[in-house]
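[job 4471] stage=fold_predict status=RUNNING
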Amino acid sequence: MKKMRVGAVVAITGVAVALTGCSSAGGGGGAADGDTIVVDMWAGSEDDTAALQAQIDVVKEQNPDIKVELRTAPWGDFFTKLTTNMASGNMACVTGMNSGMLASYTSGFAKLTDDDLATAGLEASDFAEGSLDILSNKGELYGLPFDVSTMLAYYNEDQLTAAGADIPEIGWSFDDFEDIAKTATTGGKHGFGIGMGDFQWQALPIAKSGVQPVSKDGTLQLTDPAFVEAAEWYAGLVTDQKVAAPVASASDGGWGENQFTSENAAMAVDGTWNAVGYLDNEAGFKAGLVPLPAGENGDLSLILGSGYGIAEGCENKEDALKVLGSLLSKDSQDYIASSGRSYPARAESQPLYFESIDEEHREQVKAAFDAAFANVEGQYVSDNWAKVGTFIQPSLVSVYNDQEPMTAVLESAQQQFGN
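[job 4471] inference complete, writing structure tokens
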């Protein structure tokens, strides 16, 4: 899998950095009496850390009287240490959070109000439509997003053309998807790379059924008939239609994406965060991207992303909110957009993202993004959603190798985690 950029929603690895919640002056990172507001966020490389530091520089410039310190750790280590810090009441005043992880950490974050946004110098209208759902849970706002993403279908135009298959277009259907995948399955190559990651495998079943595996109120509904039918269809791309190769092992978390980049599969589903990487792939094939195909119930896709919240125990919430406001200010959001690192949540900054893309890809990326974000819905998660994913992911290997039905896996997960 390609290296994650800051704000993406896949795991990254690296050397752990100490992740503590407060400065030596103590008190949860408060800024009063010489204390420092600590900003904790994950980073997987020196480039990621440098990009975050550039945003911290914006914060310092806009708030010269507030002391600010950035602390980072790789993705997995970040959440491990966040769990410890939250339990000890030692969270940093400004802490990074991802949409798919929020449900496990809501007790550590303060619920944000309109007055809090005003203190931060922000308004709900500053953000792209639907993006405030990213760090909302059961109707409560626990943080504000700095980037937005959704899932797309990527394709190898050279491989499709050689196989005589049609090229996916905006507005395509699941029938179109199946026809293209079947035609492109030839010469030892497959038409599609089956997904293993939560978003990678769930995206097409959600789009096809128009149903999320969790209801709006946080109730797990993996056995919803429409979702089950779509999930069975998805597994059948390997077992029945034979347009995708079975996964070798549970450790192949990026199986479908790697099948695509290695030119063993003509299509794959992945996030908008990897758009530039796929278009400029090292193999040199001509790649393209489109929104997910539309099902009978529309073209539902989830809006995903990451952002920051304020720790419930922060001793200086006012200064922390000011730091949060600067992290999401136009200057900071313009920086991440113009660098092309991620698609910003602030609506007025989004055009700069497309300007950062090579002209040969710019029009196609903008068209795909505009269409994909036109019908997005916030991701609903249950209180133990992370455990659900941990349970299902390794079981997918057996499903794709036709050793266990998808229905049985979903029923088992529902039984264990549905209460």
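[job 4471] summary: Confidence is low (pLDDT under 50) at residues 1-34.
[job 4471] exit 0
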